[in-house]
Amino acid sequence: MHVVVSKKELLKILAHCQGVADKKSTMPVLGNVLLTAGKDSLKLSATDLYLAVLGDVPAKVEESGSVAVGAKDLFDRVKMMPDAMLSISTDGAQTTIRAQGSARRYTLNGLFGEEFPALPKADEGAPKMSLEISALRDLINSTHFSISTDETRLHLNSALFEWEGSHVRMVTTDGHRLSKRETSVSGDGNAKMLIPLKGVLELRRLCDEARADGDDALVTIQQSGPNAFFAMSGFQFSVKLVDAQFPPYDQVIPSTTARSIRAPRAAVADALRAVSIAASDRTGGVKLTLSNNTMRFSSESPESGDGFDEVPVEYDEEELTIGFNARYFLDVLSAFTDEHLVLGVSGELDPATITPGNNTDAENYLAVIMPMRI
Question: Which of 208, 55, 235 is nearest to 134 (CA)?
């Protein structure tokens, strides 16, 4: 194999490949990226048998072929090359990288391309659905933080993605909080899938990169067998879906709350960040007290002392104090940009809801935070 490619274009795809490649697997081949030279492009693919990514770079192909080399090793070496066209050639399973106009050169030992596992493919008859990349990005950014990181609880270590007619939503929960984002789309589809956390984070990176490149095109989504397939901006990404039952989230969301308090989002976030510094490192607990047109935040730590701040709000009902994890609250406030938030509360042991102050966005985004005893 012998190809000449742009360093910039190659590095962009390698960054995703080395993020997916499994360097700790008992199967050494999974720590590699497969390079395949075709007619006028170099294809790169990586998989950990659960996630798979495939991208291609325009290339001048002198000789076709394939080789598998260490994903991180290749990424690190390409990154250190001058910003120029790169020549990549193989002699058996040994790969040599040279920069045009430079003496810099690297040689990597790898595997023959035939030893790399085949990537999953969608069935030919699998229906395709199209969604704006920016819409998928908003769904993920608004909900990813409340996915459980406990990999033994598969039903919580994933995001529920639902497509019903012209409505698409994503729901996540770790058992202590819940986030739900919904958006309307011009297309029509029907899908329900549980996407594991690692897959959600990789999709987020792909969407962010497409946005950074000014690409607000469409992502094509297919659900086929145990896998979901996403195609966008020259990348094809697949993920093995979680085979579990997501919690009945509608039962967690309060149908009504006794009180709704409108408050300035930025001021609340600023006060909460300040007070949370003095919260217990173990619990991150902060008390929120509502009384006399004021929203007060207080925290205390046996080791370091306490913190206090307040924000004026419209509230003239009986005093109410609720304890909660400060980080959970701040994560939600970072998920939307409205000037105001609406806090829905009932009692000190009842779940609280947070929605954007804008009526339209309030219909599309909702967060639920469970209280905690402090």
Answer: 208
Of 194, 222, 239, the residue nearest 122 (C-alpha): 222
Asked if 207 and 199 count as a contact pair (C-beta separation under 8 A), the reply is no
DSSP letter (8 states) at residue 296: E
CATH number corresponding to 253-369:
3.10.150.10
The span from the CA of 156 to the CA of 301, in Å, is: 30
- Determine how β-strand 305-312 pairs with β-strand 259-264: unpaired
Domain 2-115 bears CATH identifier 3.10.150.10: yes
- Contact of 179 with 171, CB cutoff 8 Å: yes
Q: What is the pLDDT of residues 329-365, one digit of tens each?
A: 999 999 998 999 999 999 999 999 999 998 666 569 9
Mean pLDDT estimate for the chain: 93
CATH class of 128-250: alpha beta
List every span in the chain annotated with CATH 3.10.150.10.
Answer: 2-115, 128-250, 253-369
Burial of 208 (0-12, 13-18, 19+ CB in 10 A): middle
Residue 272's contacts (CB-CB under 8 Å, 6 or more residues apart) are: 286, 297, 309, 326, 329, 330, 333
Question: pLDDT digit string (tens) for 324-339?
Answer: 999 999 999 999 989 9
Q: Are 107 and 94 in contact (CB under 8 A)?
A: yes
Q: Are 197 and 158 in contact (CB under 8 A)?
A: yes
The helices-and-strands tally (H runs, E runs) of the chain is 7, 23
Q: How many CB atoms lie within 10 A of CB 106?
A: 17
The amino acid present at 217, given as its one-letter code, is A
Taking only the tens place, the pLDDT of each residue in 248-295 is: 999 999 999 999 999 999 999 999 999 999 988 777 899 999 999 999
pLDDT band at 215 (very low <50, low <70, confident <90, very high): low
Q: How far is CA 159 from the centre of its chain?
A: 10
User: pTM value?
Assistant: 0.91
> How is 50-111 classified by DSSP, letter by letter?
SEEEEEEEEEEEEE-EEEEEEHHHHHHHHHTS-SSEEEEEEETTEEEEEETTS--EEEEE-E
